[in-house]
Structure formats: C-alpha cells, structure tokens
Design brief:
The structure is a single chain. The chain has 2 domains: 46-136 and 264-330, Bordetella uptake gene, domain 1 (D-Maltodextrin-Binding Protein, domain 2); 140-263, Periplasmic binding protein-like II (D-Maltodextrin-Binding Protein, domain 2, 3-Layer(aba) Sandwich). 46% of the residues lie in helices and 18% in strands. The protein has helices spanning 2-39, 56-70, 86-95, 109-117, 151-160, 173-184, 200-209, 219-227, 276-289, 293-301, 313-330, and strands spanning 46-49, 80-82, 103-107, 128-143, 167-170, 194-197, 214-218, 231-236, 263-270, 305-309. 38% of the residues are buried. Helix 6 (173-184) links the parallel strand 5 and strand 6. Strands 1, 2, 3, 4, 5, 6, 7, 8, 9 and 10 form a 10-stranded mixed sheet that branches.
C-alpha cells in the first residue's frame, strides 16, 4: 500500500515537475523573444558595400549609414566594409553572413545581371530584401572636348565604324543599359566594342584618358566629373529632364529620338535567415530615415529618385529581374540551362 501510495505520489510530483519545467521554458522563451527586439542591436552593424569606393554600391551604402548615424536613428557604429569584387561579395552576403543580424547591404540591377548570367546563384528572393531606397538613371558621357555633340553623333559612328568607336562601362547593369538603348536606336550591338570595368572610378579614368569614346554609367557615379567640367552628358535615361541647374540642359533619350527610359533600383537587404526581430527593426528605421533632412539632402545631391518601398518589394524586384533577363537573353548573355 505504501509502495502504491509512493508510486502514486511520485507520479503526481513527476507530472507537476514536468508541467513546471515546460511552463518555465515557454515563459523564458517568450521573455527572450520579447527582449531581443528592444535590445537589438547591441554591437556594430557592418554595412557591406558590394564593390569598391566610388561605385554606386559604395555611394549608396555610405549614404544610408551616414544618414542613420547623423540623425541618431541607430545607436551603434555602422562601419563600412568594401569588397573589390562584386560577384564574390554577392556570394559572401548569402553564405558568410547567413543568419547574421549584424550585416546590412545594398543591391541593385547589378545583382539581377549576375543572377541572369549565372555568375551568382543567388537572387533577391534568396536574400532578405528590406526596403527599396532609390532609383538612379543612366547617362551617356563623353569628354568635354569630344567631337560628339549629341547622342545621334555617337550612334552614327557606332553604325558606320563600330570597331573604331569603343565604349566603356561597368561589368553588369551598364551592359543592360547600353544593349537595350542602342538596340532601340537600330545599332547592331554584336559589333560594338565594349570595355568593362569593375567600378565607377575606373570607368571615369578610361573616359578621361580617351581610351573609350563614351561611357555608360549611372548619373551619380559621373556627376563629380560633370561638375568639374571634365566630362559632359549626351543624354540621360530618365523619363524627364533633371531639374538641377547642372543637368537641366541634358536631353532625355526620348527627346533624342530613342524611345527608351531605364532606372536602376537600389535596395537594402540582409542575408538569408535574417531574424524577424532584426528585419522589423531595420524596415522601421529605414522608413524613418527616408523622411529625415539628411536623407532628403542626400538624394538631391546625387539626383536620385526616392523609391522607398517595403510592402510588395519582392514582387517589384521579380518584374525587374524579368526585364533584365529578357534583355540579356537578346544579348546572348544568359546562363545556359
């Protein structure tokens, strides 16, 4: 009888203990999750620029970090880490930083280009997109003393003597721009001599040295040389002219007789497996940032368009990827299936 009683009592105590342990673990888990959001971040967050200094990735990444710091929206340091190789950087962002809540980066059509061509196996849905930030347009630039007065002059040479009319630009999204634009203008793009460079600084050097007749690049990456009157724009890919004093005299492609306009969207993203509390934190902080005076001054300085978007971002990027893949397929540059 005593044994039965002990056994019965032991069973009751054991069940109660099990219940208490489960309840304690559940409560501790809830407290841990609740505490993680207000306590985050507790150490520096690396802002990983996917290419070298002077590039669009670098400029945008630094602009975001600067605005967040200057407006005191983030209380921890935001150190910039540059990568000299965008292809490797896009892979590292998905592998080395997987699940890491302390890395933020910026991607663009350049990432879509690399995914379509097969040089990077990750697209936007493999990362954790946070928010679209800005759109930037492209320009066709020549040296100030170039004989080309209009983009029509350049197109004439590209049609009649393409082998003597080398052009230059970046390794990725600039190709999409020039391929689509000159195709619309009736140029045989397979005959164009195109020299690619890894960053905006190298492209600018090539146009200044005269090793290429014209440069294809985003407006913001070439703006400093325009201001210094070392280069000038023949046309821009925006749907309407810029309002700024320095660019308002530059015609659009459509005004120049080419029915085409094209924008590069730059968006903030994190690695795969980014924790939900960190995602909520950054989407909230970025939404506050784009309303600040510092950010508004920044987009005016670089002639960026405000394209902030969180809801439906993946779908927007899906559509952009489809266009990029279509253009590269026509250029014969998509990955082999």
């Amino acid at each position: 009888m005593r044994v039965a009683c002990k056994t019965s009592g032991s069973t009751i105590v054991s069940s109660a203990m099990r219940f208490s342990v489960v309840a304690f673990i559940a409560l501790a888990g809830e407290q841990s999750v609740a505490a993680s959001a207000p306590d985050y971040p507790t150490k520096p967050v690396t802002f990983f620029a996917l290419s070298g200094p002077g590039s669009g990735f670098d400029t945008t990444t630094r602009a975001v970090a600067n605005a967040l710091t200057k407006e005191k929206l983030v209380k921890v340091p935001l150190p910039i880490e540059n990568s000299p190789n965008s292809t490797q950087a896009m892979t590292l962002a998905a592998t080395r930083y997987k699940g890491d809540p302390y890395m933020i980066s910026v991607n663009s059509i350049a990432g879509m280009f690399r995914y379509a061509t097969g040089t990077v196996r990750f697209n936007h849905r493999d990362y954790t997109p946070l928010a679209a930030l800005i759109s930037t347009y492209y320009a066709v630039a020549v040296r100030t003393d170039s004989p080309y007065k209009t983009i029509g002059d350049l197109i004439k040479d590209l049609k009649e003597r393409p082998e003597k009319t080398p052009i230059c630009g970046g390794t990725s999204d600039d190709r999409v721009f020039y391929g689509a634009m000159f195709s619309r203008a009736g140029v045989d793009i397979t005959k164009i001599v195109y020299v690619s460079y890894s960053g905006g600084g190298e492209i600018n050097m090539a146009i200044l040295e005269g090793s290429c007749k014209a440069a294809m690049n985003s407006v913001d990456e070439q703006l400093a040389l325009v201001e210094a009157k070392k280069i000038r724009f023949l046309a821009v890919s925006a749907p309407k002219r810029y309002a700024s004093e320095i660019l308002k005299g530059v015609p659009t492609l459509q005004e120049s007789g080419i029915d085409f306009h094209w924008a590069n969207v730059r968006y903030a993203f994190a690695a795969p497996g980014f924790p939900d509390h960190a995602k909520a934190y950054w989407t909230d902080v970025l939404a506050k940032m784009v309303k600040t005076p510092t950010w508004k001054q920044t987009i005016a300085k670089y002639n960026w368009d405000d394209s902030f978007q969180v809801e439906g971002l993946n779908e927007t990027l899906d559509k952009k990827q489809a266009v990029v893949t279509e253009i590269l397929t026509k250029l014969g540059m998509t990955k082999k299936q």
